[in-house]
Structure formats: C-alpha cells, structure tokens
C-alpha cells in the first residue's frame, strides 16, 4: 500500500513537471512567431521588397498582439508592436527604408522581450 502510494505520487509529480515544461515552451510561441516574421520583414526590406516586408510585418504584428493578449511579453513587446505598426504604415506608403528601420527596431524589442520571457520561465 505504502509502495503504491509512493509510486502514484512519483508519477503525479513527473506528469506535473512535464506539463509545466510544455506550458513554458508554448507560453512564448506567439513571441517566437512575432520575432521570426519581424526578422523576415527586415530581410525583405533590406532587399527593397516592400510587399514581402508588409506581409511579414502584418504577420509579426498579429502574433505580437496575440502574445500580449495571452499575457506574454512586457514593455519591450509593447514597443515592438508600436514599431511594427509604424513599419506597416510606412510600407503601405512605399517608404521601404523607413519601414525597414521600424521593423529592425521591432526585432530589437521583440528579441529583448523574448529573452526576458525565457529568463522568467526558467530557460
């Protein structure tokens, strides 16, 4: 009986630990996607591809806003969102250089946000 109870507690503890690891990894999924698309926006912007920059900037913004809605991120995420909104505005106006600069600022902030999230979650 005692051995069974100890085994059950051990299994429960292991399951709880594994569940927390999955949560910690999925908790930053939106930030990861936001950063990935922001980086793609910068690459395309540097190549002068305004349409592709715009496409990735919109995707990045969607994920960054989803991250904030899910309670992820911090003030760096908020700054990243603002810069991505500016990047989109300038890309829509055809100002690829200015849009690229804002997209790069968004990358810098999202990267800082993601780093602090990973430190906070124990990664």
Automatic annotation (TrEMBL):
It comes from the Bacteria. Residues 1-24 form the signal peptide. Keywords: Signal. InterPro entries: SmbP. GO terms for molecular function: metal ion binding. This is Small metal-binding protein. It comes from Nitrosomonas eutropha (strain DSM 101675 / C91 / Nm57). The lineage of its organism: Bacteria, Pseudomonadati, Pseudomonadota, Betaproteobacteria, Nitrosomonadales.
